[in-house]
Amino acid sequence: MEIFNDFSIKEIFTCFMVLFAVIDIIGSVPIVVGLQQKFGQIEAGKASITAGVIMIVFLFVGNKILKLIGVDVNSFAIAGAFVIFIIALEMILGIEINKTTEAKAASIVPIAFPLVAGAGTLTTTLSLRAEFHDINIILGIVLNTIFVYLVLKSAKWLENKMGEATLSILQKVFGIILLAISIKLFTANFAQLVQNYINF
Questions:
Q1: Which tens digit of pLDDT belongs to each residue from 138-167?
Q2: Which of 86, 142, 185, 200 could share a disulfide with 81, CB 3.0–4.6 Å?
Q3: What's the chain's average pLDDT?
């Protein structure tokens, strides 16, 4: 199949790491534990699969929506870079810029959406199309979905073992990685956008 001709371990790893940092499921462990206490047992399989499906569907449908409203992928990727930049600042500085509404149900809402497949994740997923092949992004999403499932299943155990201090350090480390990724995404797509206009 032609789609597998673009298969790249390096691209898959990069896509996985970008999405992993944006989703920040490790940093969300305290939230997950709180939801478990409030609503009872969370259906980890249902939540993770739903989140994965949302991301994959948006990967393809989102581009069609962009074409419909006349926005090119590079412009959207730059907008996505700003969103990722803000998420990174939240993680590094420990501030909350994007206020989330209070949860009324568990599993699909708010675990699958917006905790895992939120606005930042969906924007990032579509932004990745400007630089990476679809098959590698999909595999990056699948790997993250599996990881999300494992974390959801063992959220309470992870919180007890790692502690708040370790979770906070991890959040800041991934925040810095995410900050660097957002700058790279911005510069690469801005250069492409300028080149397109010059050629035009």
A1: 999 999 999 999 999 988 787 778 777 787
A2: 185
A3: 82
* CA dist 135 → 16, 17, 40, 149 (Å): 12, 16, 36, 21
What would the two tokens of residue 115 be? 């905790």
Question: Phi/psi zone of residue 168: left (φ > 0), alpha (ψ -120 to 50 degrees), beta?
Answer: alpha
CB within 8 Å of 42: residues ≥ 6 apart? 32, 35, 36, 106, 107, 111, 152, 155
Residues 6+ apart with CB under 8 A from 87: 22, 24, 98, 120, 178
Residues 174 and 87: their CA atoms lie apart, in Å, by 10
Strand (E) or helix (H) holding 193: helix 155-199
* Separation between Cα atoms, residue 28 and residue 155, nearest integer Å: 9
